[in-house]
Amino acid sequence: MGKALSAMRRTVRLRPVGFVAALLIMWHVAAARQSVHLLPGPIDVTAGIAELARRGLLLKYVTASLFRVTWGFTTAAMLGIPFGLVVGWWKRFETGLNPLIQILRPISPLAWIPISILWFGVGDMAAIFLIFLASFLPLTVTAMNAVASIPAVHLNAGRNFGLSQFQLIRRVLYPAVAPQLVIGLRITLGIAWLVVVAAEMIAVNSGLGFLIVDARNAGTRYDLVVAGMVLIGLIGLLLDIGMRSLEKIKSLRWGYSED
Amino acid sequence: MNSSRQPMKGEQYFWPLLAALLFLAVWHLSVKWSGTKVFPSPFDVERGMAELVHRGLLVRYVADSLGRVAGGYSVAVLLGVPVGLLLGWYPAAAFVVNPTIQILRPISPIAWIPVSIVWFGVGNLAAIYLIFLASFFPIVVASMNAVRNVPSMYRRAGRNFGLSPAMLIAKVVFPASLPQIIVGLRIALGIAWLVVVAAEMIAIDSGLGYLVIDSRNSGKRYDLVVAAMILIGLTGLALDTMFRRIEKLKSVRWGFRYES
Amino acid sequence: MERTTAIAHVGSGHFAHGINSELTRQLQAEGIGMSFTRDGNLIRVLENINLEVAKGEFVCLLGPSGCGKSTLLNIVAGFIAPTQGHVRIGGEAVRGPDPRRIFVFQERGVFPWLTVEGNIAFGLSEIPKSERIQRIAHYVRLVGLVGFETTYPQELSGGMKQRLEVARALAVNPDMLFLDEPFGALDSITRLIMRGELLRIWEAERKTIIFVTHDIEEAVQLADRVVVMSARPARIQSVVEINIDHPRDISSRAYLELRDGIFEQIGLAHKV
Fold first, then answer.
1. What are the domain boundaries of chain A?
2. Which CATH number covers residue C254?
3. pLDDT grade for A2, boundaries at 50, 70 and 90
4. Do C79 and B6 touch (CB under 8 A)?
5. In angstroms, how far is CA A224 from the centroid of its own chain?
6. Rounded average pLDDT over A57-69
7. Would you state the pLDDT for residue C9?
8. A153 vs C105: CB contact, 8 Å cut-off?
9. Cβ contact C115:C150 at 8 Å
């Protein structure tokens, strides 16, 4: 009985793999049946990735993209989160700044490209600035919302125990918002990753986004284009998984309801 | 939040106004003092906007961008919501499909541009496809989670009253998950708006995104660049506000906790 | 957010005196009134509440849900300012919350990001470490949470969370404890147990307690004096002295008479 059950469980666990495999097969067939052999099949893409590795470009481009994301994202976190906490804590700030934030939010970071090139020229700084922009407001808004959702009970209890404003912020506000901040960081990191690719397609000369544009322009190497897309997807997924593991820390886990 | 002081009546207008004036003042002064010849001051931007209106471009470009969003987004909704509902309803299906979704999601829609140009050529269709892609995944995930979060007691009550599975979904699960789906739709619309601008910057010849890039390329008209950015912000805000109105409708309001 | 506007009004009500001596009087609330406006309507929550509580007394504020008794407790604890009247504790006017009078909240008041030990230690940061450890151990034992010192609240039951909150409150050695329907979210069996526990703790460390409840049985089982409050706008309808020694036999004649008396006052028949 036990053996049959665990065998069944194994097949169930393999089903997603089977689904992916089925998609890959469909892709392969569709690509092979093209009249003009333009778009690559899965095998071409794998060969493309191998080629990139061989030419040393894989590591170089991945590092470049990650480098920009790290700089832009961390700066945005270090500035945006305290800023958001302050704005969320002092009502007057929030009332004042909210309309401004609401107008700036829908402006795609890419729309800032001309200005960032004007200020920083074409290169790393411009890309890092774009990622900073893309991450700053979402993190600020996350922090603001986190402060607003602290149950008044905790703040009242803190005041009851005689905490000063500063102590209240350090000992009640900060731990209370931590779980939500971590979620916000994860989501914003995902956004930053999307933007770095776009930024690289337009404004810089290295990185995975650049690879996609360059491979197409300089020789219509669509196998490399799709290889780039696959790499982007995989790394984005890894970043997401990495951030999710933060949510497992014991002193934060209380903030995530058991579903 | 930090005090039980009640805000005075006019306060909610005073502070934003003050903040806006400060912002404009800082902007204006820093342009003046840095002596830049290129970066526009608030007045330059305002004149730029007037020029756009005068040339009839304002309305036309906004309409172009909105049109593309409408195209891609509506298809994403029509396909994404049912797919999400099904995945939420059949956890086994979600289990199978989920890893694929997780891998495809982080691929920026912009990265799809070369491929979409191959399929659709340079033009509206490629942009609409990108918007569809960008909105599809968030909508599917939101709908899926919304269904999963419907308390089982609602489902049981429905079955207790003798509803078939189809009726159950239509009469219980769908209304119960509607608030969360709407939030997901609103967020996806925000994403769609971001992507249309990006798509227009790369692959199209009209629209607000194109205006941003073109103003710079053909004449370094940074006043028009900033004017376009402001328009993008305002239109995006308008879309978001419109959506939030929907969230206030009585039939879904129960799903949102508002502070009294 | 609710908007409140200061409104002055006068009314008449009962005096909840029970104490004569200035020395034993700890809390004195005079002429407390509370109103606010919502959507243009004036809502009077409390009218002319006069209340005195002696040191070490266990007083219950009893009334139907929504009558304003929680509001009164919040006023007395200093979280809200009354629109009329004032509160003095130990002769001083109450201006805000203070660690000398700790509020035990209606639900989920414990800090979820701290362990049991962390919660109890919350108000003890000014105390030297050795003494802190002693106090924590003492209160963990007192409320019956031995063995759970390093557990997080999300792993505790509702009753255990309430015990933790009481321990946290007692650890700072307050003069007064305010409890706002602390057992409301618990099942009735746990509630009975918790009442016994609260009395046990109270007899061990004789704090002045003001306890808000809508449960008549609970009030008669616990309190020295029951302050019966009317529905909104709340006034003090009557004050009932419970002169029965603990442990109280809830089937004794004295108990039942007092309980039924309160039933009648609130206008309820005691037959279902």
1. 42-253
2. 3.40.50.300
3. low
4. no
5. 23
6. 89
7. 24
8. yes
9. yes
Cβ atoms C216, C262 nearer than 8 A: yes
Residue B223 and residue B39 in contact, taking contact as beta carbons nearer than 8 Å: no
**In chain B, what are the domain boundaries?**
58-253
Identify the residue with better confidence: B157 or C90: C90
Question: What pLDDT, in 10s, does the model give residues B38-60?
Answer: 788 888 888 888 888 888 888 88
Amino acid letter for position A219: G
State how far the Cα of B82 lies from the Cα of B181, in Å rounded to an integer: 11
The verdict on A112 touching B (C-beta cutoff 8 Å) is yes
Quick: pLDDT tens for C149-206.
999 888 898 889 988 998 999 998 888 999 988 888 888 888 888 888 889 888 888 8
Structural domain of residue C65, as residue ranges?
57-78+98-266
224-253 of A, contacting B, C-beta below 8 A: 225-226, 228-229, 232-237, 239-240
pLDDT in tens, B91-122: 888 888 888 888 888 888 888 888 888 888 87
**Residue type at position B27:** W
Q: Which residues on A lie below 8 Å from B231 (Cβ)? A: none
A123-128: average pLDDT: 86
Shortest Cα distance, chain B CAs vs residue C18, angstroms:
33
Question: CA C59 to CA C72: how far, in whole Å?
Answer: 13
* Topology of domain A42-253, CATH: MetI-like fold (1.10.3720)
Please report residues of C whose CB lies closer than 8 A to that of B6. 1-4
Which of A91, A94, A161, A181 would best serve as a mutation to test chain C binding (most C beta carbons within 10 A)?
Answer: A161
Residue C45 has pLDDT above 60, yes or no: yes
Q: What is the CA radius of gyration of chain A?
A: 23
| Length of chain A, in residues | 259
Residue C98, strand partner residues: C101
How far is the C-alpha of B42 from the C-alpha of B222, rounded, in Å?
A: 11
CA distance C240 to chain A (A): 30
**So what's the architecture of B58-253 in CATH?**
Orthogonal Bundle (1.10)
Rounded-to-integer distance, Cα C241 and Cα A158, Å: 34
Q: Which of A108, A195, A235 to mutate to test the interface with B (most CBs of B within 10 A)?
A: A108
Residue C2 has a pLDDT of 35
- Helix C188-204 / helix C158-171 crossing angle, nearest 10 deg: 20
In chain B, the residue whose alpha carbon lies closest to the alpha carbon of A38 is: B118
Task: Answer yes or no: are the C-beta atoms of A62 and A235 closer than 8 Å.
Answer: yes
User: Between A96, A155, A225, which is nearest B19 by CB?
Assistant: A96
Check CB contact under 8 Å for C1 and B259: yes
For B6, the closest chain C residue by CA position comes to C3
Q: What is the mean pLDDT of chain A?
A: 85
Residue A143 has pLDDT above 70, yes or no: yes
What total number of domains does chain C contain? Answer: 1
Secondary structure of B28-69 in the HEC alphabet? HHHHHHHCCCCCCCHHHHHHHHHHHHHCCHHHHHHHHHHHHH
- Distance from the B181 Cα atom to the nearest Cα atom in chain C, whole angstroms: 27
> DSSP letters along chain B, please?
----PPPPTTHHHHHHHHHHHHHHHHHHHHHHHHT-SSSPPHHHHHHHHHHHHHTTHHHHHHHHHHHHHHHHHHHHHHHHHHHHHHHHH-HHHHHHHHHHHHHHTTS-GGGGHHHHHHHH-SSHHHHHHHHHHHHHHHHHHHHHHHHHTS-HHHHHHHHHTT--HHHHIIIIIHHHHHHHHHHHHHHHHHHHHHHHHHHHHHH-SSSHHHHHHHHHHTT--HHHHHHHHHHHHHHHHHHHHHHHHHHTSHHHHTTS----
Neighbours of chain A (3+ CB pairs under 8 A): B, C
